[in-house]
Amino acid sequence: MLFYTTSTFRETLAALTKKSKDGYMSVTKDVCKGLTNMPDNILRDTNDRIRHFAEYRVVKLRLPNSGQNLSKPNGFRLIYWVSMKNDVAVLLRIYPKRGAQSAVDLVDDEYDRLLVEMVNESKDNQLHQVDITNGLAELSQNACLPGDKRD
Amino acid sequence: MQSYKIKVVFLQRNRCEVRLHLSNWNTFHGVRLALTLSPRKAQRELERVEIMCTCIAEIKESYTKVRHQTAEVAQQKFDIDDYLDMVIVVRKKLEEITVETNNLVETVRDHFTEFDEQETTELLAHSAPILILMDQLHQKLVESPLYPGLKTAAENYRDCVSDFQELCTDLQTFNIDVPRNEKCREVEELLRKLA
Questions:
Q1: In whole angstroms, how far apart are CA B117 and each of A44, A66, A105, A127, B186?
Q2: Which pTM does this prediction carry?
Q3: Do B109 and A48 touch (CB under 8 A)?
Q4: SS3 A90
Q5: Within this chain, do residues B57 and B87 fall inside the same structural domain, yes or no?
Q6: Do B166 and B138 belong together in one domain?
Q7: Which of B102, B174, B195 sits opposite A51 (nearest CB)?
C-alpha cells in the first residue's frame, strides 16, 4: 500500500509535535504503528469507516497515544481516504481526542473540505508520498493519485 | 449572659429576704436566696449573692457555649461522615456508568457498519436525550460540593460522554444520507475517478 499525505495532515502533525509538553510527541510513531499493524484489507474494511462507496472509503481510525499511555478512545483520530481498487491511501488529518490540542469531532462539511483538498492537491501534484515503516519519511513531494497520472 | 436582678425585700417583723429575680423585676420568678432578720446582714448577703450569681451566670454561659460547640462538632462529624459516604456512593455509581457506557460504545462500534439508515435514526433519537441528561449530570457534579472527592471519576465520566457523542456523530455521518449539493456530488465523482 502506498501512503500519501495532504498539506492539512502535515500541518496538523507538525503542530502536534511542536511542543513536547503537550504530550503528543509519540504521534508519528503511533500512526506508523497503527497503519503497519493493519493488513490492507482491514485498512479498507475497518469498522471505523465514516463513508463508504464501491470505489473508496473514508476512515476515522482511533489510535492510542503511547506517549501519554492513553487508550484508543482517548488517543488520536486519524482520518484517511483509501482506494478500493488501487493500493493507495491518503492521510487527510490527525487530531488528538484529549489534551491541549484536542479537537471537536469532525462533521460532514469538514470531511468534504478535506476530500476537496485531497482532490485539488492530487490534481496539482502536491501530495507527499510517505513511508509508514520509516516514521512517515517523505519519499516524494510531488505526487498524485493513480487516477490523476498522465502518460 | 442571662440578666438577673437581686433584690432585698423587707418583710413584716423586721425580716428581710434576698431574692434573685431571673427575668422580670416586677414579677418574682426567681429564687429566694436568704432570709434574715437584720437589714445589714441582708445587705452583706446581697453582696455575697451578687458575686456568686455572677460566677454562676458565667459558668452557665460557658456551659451553654460548650454544649453548643459539642453539638456543632457532633453535627460536623455527622456531616463529614455523610459527605464521605455520599462521595463513595456517587463515585462508585459514576465509575459503573462510565464502564457500562464505554462497553455500549465499543459494542456499537463493533457493529458500526451493520446499522441501516432507519436503525441509525432510531438509535440516535434514543441517544440524544440520554446524552443531554448525561451532560447535565456532569455539569451538576462539577458545581456540587462533592466534586473535589470525585474529580477523577467525573473526568472519566465526561470522557465517556464525549466518546458516546462522537459515536453518534460518526453514525450519523456514516449511515444517514444528507442531501448533497452539486459541488459535493462533483467531488464524489472525482474521488471515484481518483480511486
A1: 21, 36, 21, 34, 23
A2: 0.71
A3: yes
A4: strand
A5: no
A6: yes
A7: B174
